Amino acid sequence: MAFDQVLHQKAFINGASVDSSDGAQFAVINPATGETITQISDCTARDAEKAIASAKAALKPWAAKTAKERCEIMRRWFDIVIEHEQELAELLSTEQGKPLAEALGEIRYGAAYIEWFAEEARRTYGDLIPSAKGDARILVMKQPVGVVAAITPWNFPNAMIARKAAPALAAGCPIVIKPAEDTPLSALALAQMAKLAGVPEGVINIVTTSKAQEVGQVLTTHQDVAKVSFTGSTEVGRIIMRNGAETIKKLSLELGGNAPFIVFDDADLDRAVDGALMSKYRNSGQTCVCANRIYVQAGIYDAFVEKFSAKAAELKVGGAFESDVALGPLINTEAVAKVEELVADAIEKGASATIGGSKSDKGDLFYNPTILRDVSRNARVLREEIFGPVAPVIKFKDEADAITLANDSEFGLAGYFFSKDLGRVWRVAEALECGIVGVNEGVTSAVEAPFGGVKQSGLGREGSHYGLDDYLELKYVLMGGLAE
Ligand SMILES: NC(=O)C1=CN([C@@H]2O[C@H](COP(=O)(O)OP(=O)(O)OC[C@H]3O[C@@H](n4cnc5c(N)ncnc54)[C@H](OP(=O)(O)O)[C@@H]3O)[C@@H](O)[C@H]2O)C=CC1
Ligand SMILES: O=C(O)CCCC(=O)O
């Protein structure tokens, strides 16, 4: 298969492919078939320490390069990724399960972060501020934060690495990345391409491991790591925050979501249905910004459920390489068990499934697109991140009701609503307690826009011109004694 060209089995530390210090390996499994793709280095705490040491040694020379030099290397990295986008997409689909077209979209999305931050590297402007003293000026410069550790999830095995590594490198920071155990291969391929592009040794390190706690502990407590950037569950985000407390780590945390998706009775119904399909079923519902709770105003509730169910029923479930497939497998048996539990709980509390509600006959990890109607307001599916292709649809009365329901969550990542009333659009966009709001749009992600949440969905922003700031420190320099 073409992806053999980008398949690497060893961890990547200090610019070299290495076995783990104890020689152990773990298996990477294809979730669609259950087959082992390959065995790879199972790194230990010692390997994590080595990676941090190599990043520390690389810090000064990498930060000392001009922004233009870093930009040129990163541009070459972008070009190599795009040149191999097809192989990278096949590798991603094989280890993660998402349909090939979606994987290709992710490779391009990830590459766009490399391109974007290569350009942003040259715009790390400071400020010159008038001082209250006549013979002084206030200068503000931006400097790299230091060695960065990144811990990433399996749902976007390429883009979540690129979204962290690209701003780190652009800012002048070396990075040590621990990819998810389920999907380490895309990370290794990206790092090897960075090497080909001329990224010096130690600037990117990939510590593959099945020992998340042991390796994570080192990455999040080590005194030579200045910053930790994490994407994953709120539960692990809390552990990372606690671990970082002793050495006051800078933190970027992209955590869980519970996105409300609101359809007002003045909405364009077809547009709302298409938005819900995209928002809910992308990546089989395994995205932190996926619509988790769909609120529809009473007057159009039945019409919405009918149209949404008819279109969702057409989505084909299957392996990533089958034609016209829209939904791949879930990542593992725990994910399927969680979805089954949430659906059972909702049905026990009075909901009914208009479509789906069960596993697909495609295999153990495949779950059918599911729509639940008349979901009770105390169902678990409305409180917890579903991370599967299940859409609970709930009726609401009026605008105030919709806002109260939408904000009734400890999460605050994304929210969506559909309305044609301009006044309502402003009111609701301002009232939603979310970091990201889609108005008449079901997918908001874009490299140019800041991605991140409020409340317990996290800290910091990724992407956009704000995204570089997470990897920079401000230094204030008072330039005094200027009078003759
Ligand atoms: N915001 C988001 O994008 C995501 C949200 N989630 C939510 O989390 C749920 C569980 O998914 P899961 O994959 O278990 O998410 P986790 O938060 O457990 O995993 C995310 C990353 O953290 C690592 N990790 C796990 N435990 C520790 C630890 N103690 N210290 C440091 N790193 C650690 C994981 O490693 P390893 O893979 O080796 O366990 C992985 O690299 C999902 O159902 C979903 O609700 C999950 C993924 C992404
Ligand atoms: O689930 C995530 O954390 C990644 C979201 C991908 C994106 O849309 O940017």
TrEMBL record:
Signal peptide: none annotated. Gene3D superfamilies: Aldehyde Dehydrogenase, Chain A, domain 1 (3.40.605.10), Aldehyde Dehydrogenase, Chain A, domain 2 (3.40.309.10). The active site is at E254. It comes from the Bacteria. Residues 20-477 form the Aldehyde dehydrogenase domain. Keywords: Oxidation, Oxidoreductase, Potassium. It holds the Pfam family Aldedh. One of its GO terms (molecular function) is succinate-semialdehyde dehydrogenase (NAD+) activity. The keyword Oxidoreductase applies. One of its GO terms (cellular component) is cytosol. The keyword DNA-binding does not apply. GO terms for biological process: gamma-aminobutyric acid catabolic process. Belongs to the aldehyde dehydrogenase family. This is Succinate-semialdehyde dehydrogenase/glutarate-semialdehyde dehydrogenase. It comes from Maritalea mobilis.
